[in-house]
From TrEMBL:
<feature type="transmembrane region" description="Helical">
    <location>
        <begin position="28"/>
        <end position="44"/>
    </location>
</feature>
<dbReference type="GO" id="GO:0016020">
    <property type="term" value="C:membrane"/>
</dbReference>
<keyword id="KW-0812">Transmembrane</keyword>
<protein>
    <submittedName>
        <fullName>Fatty acid desaturase</fullName>
    </submittedName>
</protein>
<dbReference type="InterPro" id="IPR012171">
    <property type="entry name" value="Fatty_acid_desaturase"/>
</dbReference>
<feature type="domain" description="Fatty acid desaturase">
    <location>
        <begin position="51"/>
        <end position="289"/>
    </location>
</feature>
<dbReference type="GO" id="GO:0006629">
    <property type="term" value="P:lipid metabolic process"/>
</dbReference>
<keyword id="KW-0472">Membrane</keyword>
<feature type="transmembrane region" description="Helical">
    <location>
        <begin position="152"/>
        <end position="170"/>
    </location>
</feature>
<keyword id="KW-1133">Transmembrane helix</keyword>
<feature type="transmembrane region" description="Helical">
    <location>
        <begin position="182"/>
        <end position="200"/>
    </location>
</feature>
<dbReference type="InterPro" id="IPR005804">
    <property type="entry name" value="FA_desaturase_dom"/>
</dbReference>
<dbReference type="GO" id="GO:0016717">
    <property type="term" value="F:oxidoreductase activity, acting on paired donors, with oxidation of a pair of donors resulting in the reduction of molecular oxygen to two molecules of water"/>
</dbReference>
<dbReference type="Pfam" id="PF00487">
    <property type="entry name" value="FA_desaturase"/>
</dbReference>
<feature type="transmembrane region" description="Helical">
    <location>
        <begin position="206"/>
        <end position="226"/>
    </location>
</feature>
<feature type="transmembrane region" description="Helical">
    <location>
        <begin position="50"/>
        <end position="72"/>
    </location>
</feature>
């Protein structure tokens, strides 16, 4: 794609980057109010059946994912035109989803600016090693990476690490505004959880809230993981890296069933979002449907996305992800070639 076509593509998508105040308010109403209602019903159901409570917690976790999408839009300044409104709603939804608004706003902006850039990995993204880096790593380096990429660790322990540790502490060198926002959100979470535990008891609180944050966290990590970890995803070094290609070829179109698309705030149109982060979630589908070149983005479905679990390392030679099993064969062949070269 020529530079002119890339510029035209960005311009066409930018036309959808205008928040609709009415749509944003409607989304707040149809997302946050049902969440509170389902949480209350989950508490009431404890006197009926704990299985009914857990079932309602699963439903509530879906609404937490949707609340996070609102939070996410606020960090991009795309949910409202008014920056102050984005900051206020973003902080409130950050309390509800256990994310520090200012901290995540910074790291996620870096993710967008460096996504698919092999020379600028490490902030706001999923840890990806190349085959060559893995081959050069120590035993312990490989072990840590293998543990990190293990589904049980990433999607099982990941939510607890994210909510209880990563999101609760400021990064080194954080500015005053960022630090204070984290403190505010932490204090608010402690106060709200404390009142709920006092009101309904810690057992009831844990039975309801723990499944909600665990399931929502796992789903969130999965969405973030799968939309950049597909077989022929785009990755390049700094000198070859291109923003538009990183957006369109390095982010997938996750084609989800209607209900799941609604719950996830249309974040499946991830290629559109990366091309123009200021497009509100409720305009992503329209931007995709109105822009023919975007329909050529890699499309994955619920079934095909499951294959991404085995994608562990990025092979710069083949420009694709490979599994740990495949990398063993790759390294063995390279060693054989190196041996023959030395012999000759």
């Amino acid at each position: 794609m020529s530079k002119q076509k890339q510029a035209n593509l960005k311009k066409r998508v930018a036309a959808f980057a205008t928040p609709d105040k009415k749509a944003s308010i409607q989304q707040l109403i149809n997302t946050i109010l049902p969440f509170f209602l389902i949480w209350f019903l989950a508490y009431q159901s404890l006197s009926v059946s704990i299985w009914l409570t857990l079932a309602l917690a699963v439903v509530a976790s879906g609404f937490v994912v949707r609340i996070f999408i609102i939070f996410h839009d606020c960090t991009h300044g795309s949910f409202f035109k008014n920056p102050k409104a984005n900051r206020i709603v973003g902080t409130i939804t950050g309390i509800m989803t256990l994310f520090a608004f200012e901290k995540w706003k910074r790291s996620h902006a870096i993710h967008h600016a460096t996504s698919s850039n092999l020379d600028k990995r490490g902030t706001g993204d999923v840890w990806v090693m190349t085959v060559d880096e893995y081959a050069a790593a120590s035993f312990w380096g490989r072990l840590v990476y293998r543990l990190y990429r293990n589904p049980l660790v990433m999607f099982g322990l990941g939510p607890f690490y994210l909510f209880l540790l990563s999101n609760r502490f400021n990064r080194k060198g954080a500015k005053r505004k960022e630090r204070l926002n984290t403190y505010l959100i932490n204090a608010s979470v402690v106060a709200i959880y404390g009142v709920l535990i006092w009101a309904i008891g810690w057992q009831a609180f844990l039975i309801i809230q723990m499944p909600i944050i665990f399931i929502a966290g796992s789903l969130g990590i999965w969405l973030f993981y799968v939309q950049h970890q597909f077989e022929d995803s785009y990755f390049e070094n700094e000198d070859e890296w291109d923003f538009v290609k990183a957006a369109v070829d390095g982010s997938s179109y996750y084609k989800l069933p209607t209900v799941m698309q609604w719950i996830t705030g249309s974040i499946g149109f991830h290629h559109v979002h990366h091309l123009s982060p200021r497009v509100p979630n409720y305009h992503l589908e329209k931007a995709h449907e109105s822009t023919p070149p975007l329909k050529k983005a890699t499309t994955i479905t619920l079934v095909s996305s499951l294959k991404s679990i085995r994608f562990r390392l990025y092979d710069e030679a083949s420009k694709s992800f490979v599994s740990f099993k495949e990398v063993k064969e790759l390294l063995r062949k390279r060693q054989q070639i190196g041996t023959r070269f030395q012999e000759n």
